[in-house]
Specification:
There is one protein chain. With about 70 residues, the chain is an all-alpha fold. The chain has a domain at about 30-70. Helices cover about 60% and strands about 0% of the residues. The longest helix is centred in the C-terminal third of the chain and has 28 residues, at about 40-70.
């Protein structure tokens, strides 16, 4: 029994699409739609989201400290 040659199968173009190009999927998740709206790289958007999340945590902690002290 011989194993199929996966490398060769990957080199073949997809039927109906020139140069193996795949069509854009019809359904996109909320994250993909959000990332498509901004001209930033995925890494940059992840950094921005992380900074905003950190700021939210900071303000919650500061609010808790203010109510405790005052």
């Amino acid at each position: 029994m011989s194993e199929p040659n996966n490398e060769r199968e990957n080199d073949l173009p997809q039927a109906g699409f020139p140069d193996g190009a795949q069509p854009e999927p019809e359904f996109k998740g909320w994250k993909e739609r959000l990332y498509d709206r901004f001209p930033f790289s995925l890494r940059t958007l992840d950094i921005i989201i992380g900074i905003l999340f950190g700021l939210i945590i900071l303000f919650v902690v500061l609010g808790m400290l203010k109510t405790r002290m005052g």
